[in-house]
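URGENT: need a sanity check before tomorrow's submission.

F., can you look over the NAD-dependent epimerase/dehydratase domain-containing protein record below? I want to be sure the sequence and structure line up before it goes out.
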Amino acid sequence: MQSRDFVYVGDVVDVNLWFLDHPDKSGIFNLGTGRAEPFKAIGEAVIDFYAKGEIDYIAFPEELKGRYQSYTRADISELRASGCDVEFKTVAEGVKAYLEWLNG
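Structure tokens as predicted:
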């Protein structure tokens, strides 16, 4: 199953604001949730939001096999060691927040 460390843009903003408030902290940090969630979770969140729809699966393109990173998960241990305690949304929470904004 293909999974990614999807991060909600509002969480990225919150991390940047945290560093703005902590100018004594600096470095290069991975930014993600530290969790890998399947692509399917995005579709499920959209279906849950609208209370309708279904996921239609298609085959993975042959030309991308071996050239596509099918799993990512950010190591955020250095970010946490810096003191940054921003809580990251799950895919379901991030998609819901985005769709609420989009349909606002």
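My own read: Residues 9-21 form the longest helix (13 residues). The chain has four helices and two strands. If you see anything odd, call me.
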